[in-house]
Design a protein that fits this description.
There is one protein chain. This protein has 523 residues and is mainly alpha-helical. It is built from 19 helices and 2 strands. It has a two-stranded parallel ribbon. The radius of gyration is 26 Å and the shape is globular.
Length: 523
């Protein structure tokens, strides 16, 4: 019979049950008019449709985007803070009539830190882009309660640290503990590099959190930040990271289901933790519900990615492909044009149909791991093999095979395109969208597999498919990262559309507030 350890159940219970909320008077809460909010939400939906991001990163992405724009348009940190928070509330990334006005001063303080070190110009533009990401996460943690997330990460880390061992490579204990903690954050809450960088910043440079000590003379802080960034990037790029994450994923998925089961029945949470069989039944029902939600999430992700690709492709076709083909070749190949336009949505739709949703064996494994997390000695030691060290001849041979993968894959596609009378321009656009769409589809597949902890069997056709698809996915990853840096369409939206649009909404907000004051004078 399964018996849960009381100390562990109390720790989980404390994490998932919210504490006392501080009462805030109505007059001191930040309010955004409902009419303004409707327009802001509509814009955000359009903006998110053409800039594909994972759903759990939408709020942080919007916060960073608005912060970047406000910093360019305003100098006063208090004005920036006020505009930033109200835009986030208007777009419904933050709750209306919930945040106290005093939080604006705290947001302004964080913006002051960013402005102070930016003026020193101690690093490159890449460094300051990284720093803006750090400040974005810091502001988000201020505006959104992350107590539950932090508590569960701490619980998972304490259960797993010391249980994951590396064979074949010596890793210092502090670094190993750090990598386990980062993997817990990644797998439990899908934390991205910016979020993890902020967590490491607090550990490596705690003075950053005490601006009163250095804000008057920020040069030393600005110079130290450059060195800290390099250290953080090295920690995040540790080659053992993927293997540690794979070892932690089953535990993280199971803890997420355990949390959701307790939150699904908050009034019975303590009783469930005292009755393992009943808790397992709730987890099983919840798993079935989550699998269905995953299908819906997959469809939404496929639609968003397809819209993004279709809009981008239509713009390229109208602004680049058709005019240049008319200029250079005096005609347009409508066959290649239709293939280039229709392939992305068709490929995305086809891939979404073949993504597998977890089954009963996966649910059974989740229940098993959830039980072990709550048992005193339930977590076994897991050995991880370090990356195999290869000799010079072995590296050379594998490099040749690796290069051959790219030549065979892209060469075969090129031969087919020549048979279809593609010009070099339409062929380049075909390659571009094939790689980008394939990478987006791969990302969707990974997201749909977030609940899967049962390893699939290796099959021969899988090896062949990996050989042919890896070059396309690798190229798609590189192109996607490059697009995010030079996306002129998003630049057009952010500064030529969003900036004046949000200014109009700000004026409307002030007008509504003014009219409210005038009505109060009539009473």
């Amino acid at each position: 019979m399964t018996v849960f350890y009381k100390g562990l159940t109390e720790q989980v219970l404390k994490a998932v049950q919210p504490g006392q909320q501080t009462e805030i008077s109505d007059d001191s809460r930040i309010h955004v008019h409902a009419a303004v909010s409707r327009f802001a939400v509509l814009y955000e939906r359009i903006r998110n449709a053409v800039d594909y991001k994972d759903e759990h990163l939408l709020r942080k992405s919007a916060l960073k985007r608005i912060l970047n724009r406000q910093i360019l348009l305003e100098d006063d940190p208090h004005v920036i803070a006020n505009n930033l928070v109200k835009e986030m509330i208007g777009a419904r990334y933050l709750p209306n009539d919930k945040l106290p006005e005093s939080v604006l001063d705290e947001v302004a303080e964080r913006i002051m830190k960013l402005q102070a070190v930016t003026k020193i110009r101690a690093g490159s533009e890449r460094h300051y882009s990284w720093l803006r990401g750090i400040v974005t996460v810091e502001i988000e943690e201020l505006l959104v309660d992350h107590f539950e997330e932090k508590s569960l990460v701490t619980f998972l880390y304490e259960r797993l640290v010391g249980k994951i061992l590396i064979q074949g490579e010596v890793l210092q204990d502090p670094e190993m503990r750090l990598q386990v903690y980062l993997a817990c954050c990644r797998e439990l809450h899908k934390s991205d590099d910016e979020t993890l960088s902020y967590k490491l910043m607090r550990a490596y440079l705690p003075e950053w959190l005490r601006p009163e000590d250095w804000l008057a003379n920020p040069r030393s802080m600005a110079e130290r930040l450059v060195a800290v960034e390099r250290r953080i990037r090295l920690s995040l790029a540790n080659p053992l990271t993927p293997r540690i994450r794979r070892a932690i994923k089953p535990w993280a998925v199971s803890l997420n289901f355990l949390r959701d089961a307790l939150k699904d029945r908050p009034e019975q949470a303590r009783e469930l933790l005292n009755e393992p069989d009943t808790l397992n039944a709730v987890v099983a029902r919840l798993a079935d519900r989550r699998y269905k939600e995953a299908r819906g999430k997959l469809r939404r992700g496929a639609v968003r990615a397809t819209v993004y690709l279709f809009v981008t492709k239509m713009m390229i076709a109208l602004l680049l492909e058709v005019p240049l083909e008319m200029l250079w070749y005096k005609h347009v190949s409508y066959l290649s044009l239709m293939i280039n336009i229709l392939l992305p949505p068709m490929l995305m739709f086809t891939v979404s149909l073949f993504i597998r949703i977890p089954g009963r064996d996966n649910t059974d494994r989740i229940k098993e791991y959830a039980d072990r997390l709550l048992e005193k000695d339930g977590v076994p030691v897991r050995d991880i093999r370090a990356r195999k060290k290869r000799g010079t001849k072995s590296k050379l041979l594998l490099s040749i095979i690796y290069a051959a993968m790219f030549i065979i894959t892209f060469g075969s596609i090129g031969i087919v395109l020549l048979k279809l009378d593609f010009t070099w321009l339409s062929a380049a656009i075909f390659y571009f969208f094939l790689c980008v769409v394939s990478f987006f589809a791969f990302r969707l597949r990974q997201n749909a597999r977030e609940y899967i902890i049962v390893q699939g069997r290796d099959r021969t056709y899988g090896v062949v498919l990996d050989f042919l698809s890896y070059p396309i996915l690798r190229a798609g990853q590189w192109l996607s990262r490059s697009i995010s840096r030079i996306n002129f369409f998003l630049f057009f939206l952010d500064f030529l559309v969003e900036a004046p649009f949000k200014m109009v909404l700000s004026v409307l907000e002030e007008w509504f507030a003014f009219m409210k004051e005038k009505k109060e004078e009539l009473q």
